[in-house]
Specification:
Helix content: under 10%
CATH superfamily: LURP1-related
Radius of gyration: 15 Å
Strand content: over 45%
Distance between the termini: 11 Å
Number of strands: 12
Number of domains: 1
CATH topology: Porin
CATH class: Mainly Beta
Length: 175
């Protein structure tokens, strides 16, 4: 099981393997719409994402582009925005948002990653931990997690949810 850490600062995410930065994501607001760009370790843009709310379907949609060409759309599967799915590079990915600030990613029905945002590091800063058994899924997992974080600002304090019943049950927790 490989472990990675993600630092969330203002409108960016940085993914680290020990002290080495592997990927980063930065989001912005452009003409009233949220967008994001994913960069590799050499700061070369590899993906761009736009976040839209489809009012008539009452669902969130993330359009993923590579080299200015549309690759796919990540769709919310329910009105609570706790389950998302996408057909990405021939595989079916599903994202589930769980209790206690955890998120799981499934690839073709098998769990391939778990994000845990409830970790507080030694400097009392929030750190997101990523666990995944196969490093070949790292880029796609970071891309999908970055989609969900577009528009969120860094959270220094605890968030209070009115009801955890609105989130998905984590049937196979790794942490």
């Amino acid at each position: 099981m490989e472990q990675f850490s993600i630092k969330h600062f203002n409108n960016s995410l940085d993914l680290y393997s020990s002290k080495t930065k592997l990927y980063s994501s930065r989001w912005f607001m452009d003409f009233g719409k949220f967008g994001s760009e994913i960069f590799d370790s050499e700061e070369k843009r590899i993906y761009s994402i736009s976040k839209k709310f489809q009012f008539w379907k009452w669902k969130m949609v993330f359009t993923i582009n590579q080299n200015n060409k549309k690759l796919t759309d990540l769709f919310s599967q329910n009105n609570r925005d706790t389950v998302y799915s996408v057909d990405f590079k021939g595989d079916l990915y599903e994202i589930k948002i769980h209790y206690n600030k955890k998120t799981s990613i499934f690839k073709n029905g098998e769990k391939i990653a778990e994000f845990d945002a409830s970790i507080i590091d030694n400097n009392q800063e929030q750190s997101i931990q990523l666990q995944l058994p196969d490093v070949t899924n790292l880029e796609s997992c970071f891309l999908l997690f970055s989609c969900l974080k577009i528009g969120e600002i860094e959270q220094k304090s605890k968030t209070i949810l009115s009801s955890q019943k609105k989130l998905e049950i984590n049937e196979d927790p790794w942490t």
